[in-house]
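Quick one: unspecific monooxygenase from Sciurus vulgaris, structure tokens please.
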Amino acid sequence: MDPVVVLVISLSCLLLLSLWRQRSGRGKLPPGPMPLPIIGNILQIDPKNISKSLTNLSKVYGPVFTLYLGTKPTVVLHGYEAVKEALIDHGEVFSGRGSFPVPDRANKGFGKWREMRRFSLMTLRNFGMGKRSIEDRIQEEARCLVEELRKTKSSPCDPTFILGCAPCNVICSIIFHSRFDYEDLRFLNFMRKLNESLEILSSPWIQEKDNPETEFTIEALVNLVNDLFGAGTETTSTTLRYGLMLLLKHPEVTVKVQEEIDLVIGRHRSPCMQDKSSMPYTEAVLHEIQRYIDLIPTNVPHAVNCDTKFRNYFIPKGTTIITSLTSVLHDSKEFPNPEKFDPGHFLDKNGKFKKSDYFMPFSTGKRICAGEGLARMELFLFLTTILQNFHLKSVVDPKDLDTTPVSRGFASVPPAYQICFIPV
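--- reply ---
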């Protein structure tokens, strides 16, 4: 018999034996498609739209199912009820750090995530997280952003770079207590590397890698700072870039936001966080932008900290957990016509801002994004400052703008577009 055939048969037998052991004995994993030897179910996942693949599989196997991304099982949670039950109701059990190949390799597995998270939150608070000092820094950067946009002289431009510089400089002001000029060569090189990192994260998933735990070291601190830049820059800048594209696509929404800015803030002072409570429509627009773009469709991977029984299924300790945030943010029962951009999803019948438990762009539970407060502040201050100073003009008919993301791997990446910032 051909040696290759023998090898394939042997591997298939080993895989089937492994599956049988996992699905019997102490309990069984949730159902899922039959994996192939070595590669598992990777061929059933579209790397350009992982979230859609998970949605299609959930229609067959239900809200809790098992995938093999390689040789190890990964449990997928789809829909608000399953995500809430795991991350909130059983938050401690599901709070482990799942395998995430690219960041794991970059960080070399340094530091326990709980200690690192606690340290980063404490440090950010000491630097002014949630206090006036952070707001002042964002306001200063918003003014610098406006000056950079004025330099475009109303000409069409790709806003990617400029919108990336602003949140990056906020992190610089927190970490280094200074900002960089938008033309500084070191800053330009750093921004380029951040953009490349997001592209890598949005590419197809790699084979898995163990995440060894090590001591809290200087190198771990360096990686923590790197995480702050990565998470605190690209996520906010991408949301801003996507948000401006949606405002170009829906000029009637832009007009309403600018009317609210004129009414509450006026033209002669900078927006501040105190204004937000008096601007329900703007708040609804910001929430709808984050809901609609679904920036991190499958969340960061979690893991169970111990053997656990979940909905009559057995999930072994260390199993990676994927939670579909798309299934929550685009739930048609909570958000009618979820594929439509509509700020009314967050407004009541009286035009007041309406909260929703389904709003999870920052995840939820024990592992909710540590920079949520900073991101919310930046999005509000940057967007209102831009719209206070500029009218937005598209170089094509707004109806012809395609807002479909070019990639929906780890992050939803908006298509490139041109925009004109016309001074008010």
